[in-house]
């Protein structure tokens, strides 16, 4: 049996002896239910080639994501974000990743923060452009502030759920010179990340400890 994905990647088509029936998922996209032997995230079947194995995994991920599995939602979301095995679609990607984040998945929470950070960077670039009217400038500035707040919210949730990279990010947000942050909170996150083996956090924590020891 070979499994292929059609041009818009919204429907999985099985060719061969196995019959599948197209169904509609929660995003309004059609897919074909994979046969029972592939109805798991860790596909154990011996596929003839990598391409078929990848297609089968996408089928399994899709079904598992729709059933509410946060790990599957995250992986499938990242695949849509990067065009890995499916057609690149940022809208679907963010819906899936946010669903995983809303279930408390630490990496998904962090990825939502990354998304907001990219938007913040884009708004910062736009603000430096010439020819903006005062109204345009204020609108963009307001959007930047909104997404910066959202970014910190997602990063902090990821940090509180034990994600080391998010802990390090929150440490920087509070400890970088010139930032009016919460130093105590910054050291808490920096220590937490360092204790989990985050190399940059360990290095920065050592610097702070030496500086404190020297009284600088």
User: How many distinct helices?
Assistant: 8
Number of domains: 3
Q: Report strand order across the widest sheet.
A: 1-2
Main beta sheet: 2 strands, antiparallel
Return the average pLDDT rounded to an integer: 80
In the predicted model, the low-confidence regions spanning at least 5 consecutive residues are 1-41
Radius of gyration: 22 Å
- Total strand segments: 4
Succession of helices and strands? EEEEHHHHHHHH
Q: So what's the overall shape?
A: flat
Overall SS class: mainly alpha
Q: In what range is the share of β-strand residues?
A: 5-15%
Percent helix range: 55-70%
User: How far apart lie the N and C ends?
Assistant: 69 Å
What would you say this structure looks like, in words?
The protein has 216 residues and is mainly α. The chain folds into three domains: 1-103, no CATH class; 114-157, no CATH class; 162-216, no CATH class. 62% of the residues lie in helices and 6% in strands. The protein is built from eight helices and four strands; from the N terminus they run E-E-E-E-H-H-H-H-H-H-H-H. A two-stranded antiparallel sheet has the order 1-2. It has a two-stranded antiparallel sheet with strand order 3-4. Strand 3 and strand 4 (30-32) form a beta hairpin. Helix 2 (70-82) packs antiparallel against helix 3 (90-102) and helix 6 (164-175) packs antiparallel against helix 7. The N and C termini lie far apart (69 Å). Mean pLDDT is 80; it is low at 1-41.
């Amino acid at each position: 049996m070979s499994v292929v994905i059609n041009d818009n990647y919204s429907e999985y088509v099985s060719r061969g002896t196995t019959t599948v029936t197209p169904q509609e998922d929660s995003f309004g996209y059609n897919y074909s239910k994979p046969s029972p032997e592939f109805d798991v995230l860790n596909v154990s079947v011996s596929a003839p080639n990598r391409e078929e194995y990848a297609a089968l995994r996408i089928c399994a991920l899709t079904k598992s994501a729709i059933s509410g599995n946060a790990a599957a939602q995250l992986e499938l979301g990242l695949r849509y974000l990067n065009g890995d095995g499916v057609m690149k679609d940022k809208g679907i990607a963010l819906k899936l990743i946010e669903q995983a984040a809303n279930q408390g998945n630490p990496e998904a929470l962090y990825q939502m923060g990354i998304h907001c950070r990219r938007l913040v960077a884009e708004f910062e670039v736009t603000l430096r452009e010439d020819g903006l009217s005062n109204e345009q400038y204020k609108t963009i500035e307001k959007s930047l502030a909104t997404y910066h707040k959202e970014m910190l919210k997602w990063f902090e949730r990821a940090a509180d759920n034990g994600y080391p990279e998010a802990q390090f990010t929150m440490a920087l947000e509070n400890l970088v010179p010139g930032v009016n942050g919460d130093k105590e909170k910054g050291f808490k996150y920096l220590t937490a990340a360092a204790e989990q083996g985050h190399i940059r956090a360990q290095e920065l924590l050592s610097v702070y400890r030496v500086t404190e020891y020297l009284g600088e």
